[in-house]
Amino acid sequence: MDLFYGYFLYAISLVTIGGIYAILTLGLNIQWGFAGLFNAGIAGFFAIGAYSAAILTTMPTDRHLGGYEMPYIVAALVAMVASGLIAWVIGKICLRLRSDYLAIATIGIAEIIRLVFKNEVWATNGHRGISEVPKPFEGLPQPWNDLAFLAIVGLIVLAVYLLSERAHKSPWGRVMTAIRENEPASHAAGKNIETFRMQGFVIGSMIMALAGAMMSHYLKFINPAVSEPIASTFLVWVMLIVGGSGNNKGAIIGAFLMWFIWSGTELVLSTIVQNIPPDLLSYLPADLSVRLAYVRIFMIGLLLQIFLQKYPSGIFPEKRPIAR
Amino acid sequence: MFEFINFYFIPGLILGCIYALGAIGITLTFGILRFANFSHGENMTIGAYFAYTLVSLFGMHPLLAMPIAMALTAFVALGVDRYFYRPFRSSPSIMLVMASFGIMLMAQSIIQFTWGTQVKTISPGIQRPIKLFDYLMISPKHLIIIACTLVLVFIVHYLLTYTKTGKAMRAMADSPELARLTGINTEGVIRTTWIIGGGLAAAAGVLLAIDTQVQTLMGFQLLLPMFAAAILGGIGKPYGAIAGGLIIGVAEELCTYPWIGTEPLIAPNYKAGVAFAIMVIMLIWRPSGLFKGKVF
Q1: What is the DSSP string of A111-122?
Q2: What is the rounded CA–CA span in Å between residue B56 and residue B61?
Q3: CB atoms within 10 A of CB A295
Q4: Which of A112, A234, B125, B206 is the most exposed place for a label (fewest CB within 10 A)?
Q5: Residue A128 contacts by C-beta under 8 Å, 6 or more apart in sequence?
Q6: B23 touches chain A (CB under 8 A)
Q7: Residue with more model confidence, A64 or A49
Q8: Which of the four pLDDT bands, split at 50, 70 and 90, describes residue B203?
Q9: What is d(CA B16, CA B22) in angstroms, rounded to the nearest whole number?
Q10: Span B148-169, pLDDT tens digits
């Protein structure tokens, strides 16, 4: 019975983190799927959300900036505004140029955000990170606290999904599609391309910060490694491309699917390593289990290349919004 | 004064040489294939690891291993192009950016899997710096880096200015359609681009390894300054990339000099921010760069 209970708790955590990734992927879908903007710094916006929420809600401590003990909703809103402001500044610089420049600038800003969180020890406690981040409903008995948190994540996914669906079908979403597909024509139709792109970029980045805030509450801990910059950015990209860019349902399903594959392969690989006969193990490098972790990244990368080349529209291709 | 030159200006110049060699490849692929290649840093890393393998297996001198590592890396770059970039020749260029983003991760994980994540060295121990004019000090490995960069830059200059392929490359950077109409073998030009870009990146990686160490993220950490150098010099302009690389290398080191008071002007931890700041200023003020490159 205890074994099943353990599995049950594991399943809850799997679905909760999958849900947080779904929020991230929905945010990226607005940037890439709707507006065609390449954001290579997802982890940066995620980290802004995570750190803002952590600093604003923790109890007073001398290890890092904090002690504001703000309500969760206020902290999440501040996190989103901070992320949106940074996105606005990057957008101001890059959106008038081709999206390659945006990709370079976002990967740069993500790297600098990581450096700031790592080096400004007075504010963030450096690489040791911020611990004891409060978690909603943590006073409830196990498993109800986890289920309640899952419910919040589920509600946010649903809310972001419904808003994105609405936006996609609205005149705003149709202009976005038009700009992505044919920029000169939309320009000729009198649409301000830069403004629309900016809106998409800022809104997407705010949603990513919301996901970051949820993650730091869920883990009760955040450090620069939690937003393992390139790998997590990449994972979200793969989620969207596999699920189907431009399709909100695809974004959510892609996020859960890839998250399950990602966690599942970890389980499989560690089981394999544990079951290698000892006499064979002596021929293999000592850090084998560390090295095998990179095989997963390689396989996910290969999956992305296959989808990009063979199935560029993903499992759930985009449905064009139709004016009524 | 000599402290300034020995500990800030010369290291900046060395870093600048390495950036310059890397940025030539970035600017050529950006200008000719028309996309920002995120996997370029991995060419550097893989070049350094090829050299490390040759040095540790055969006891080769790093400088002897360098040309072999360059050839192997050029071969890898061609293979990656064949299977991962060629299918997107007629697609929107952002697909190539995404594919290269994936290749970056895949290459990193292959390197980490094959060689492990432990830091390795190929330079032969600590060398006594050579003293010039009593105060000016430069270590032999830094002289090697500067000499190698000069030789490679001269070769690239010769290739681009005097050979038919070089002229075809410049023509294609200016206008791919026109180049195709005049009968230039565009696939051939693309292959040459990868050979030059990959080879130079590998050379930069080996030189960086001689200067510091071999580690799995060494190329990725140089990606941002190399992009900044390419943009500063002007996209598609190899000489611009060289100038941009040198400027950014020197600027990064000079920013850590205690110009005001005794503290470094910018903490060494934030060196990466200097390249980024220069890039942002260029994007705002003059996206075509110093050498009037392309703006997409």
Answers
A1: HHHHHHHHH-HH
A2: 10
A3: 15
A4: B125
A5: A63, A223
A6: no
A7: A49
A8: very high
A9: 10
A10: 999 999 999 999 999 998 989 8
pTM of the model: 0.91
Q: CB atoms < 10 A from the CB of A232, how many?
A: 18
What token pair was written down for A234?
Answer: 């990449």
**CB-CB neighbours of B143 under 10 Å:** 13
Question: Which residues share a beta bridge with B130?
Answer: B138
The first and second tokens of residue B202, run together, are 């590998």
By the 10 Å C-beta count (0-12 exposed, 13-18 middle, 19+ buried), A312 is classed as middle
Among B286, B271, B198, B199, CA closest to B235: B286
Q: Is B87 on the interface with A (CB under 8 A)?
A: yes
Chain A hits for B118, CB-CB cut-off 8 Å, are 287
| Tally of helices (H runs) and strands (E runs) in chain A | 13, 2
Which residues 122-161 on chain A approach chain B with CB closer than 8 angstroms?
none
Strand partners, A151: none
- Would you call A119 exposed, middle or buried from its count of C-beta atoms within 10 A (0-12, 13-18, 19+)? middle
Q: Do A109 and B276 touch (CB under 8 A)?
A: yes
Report the complex ipTM.
0.88
Give the contacts of B238 (CB within 8 A, at least 6 positions apart): B24, B27, B28, B156, B160
> ∠ at Cα A193 (A241, B174), nearest 5°?
80
Looking at domain B2-86+135-285, its CATH architecture is: Orthogonal Bundle (1.10)
Exposure string (b/e) for A5-15, b if CB count within 10 Å is 16 or more? eeeeeeeeeeb
Q: Which amino acid is at A244?
A: G
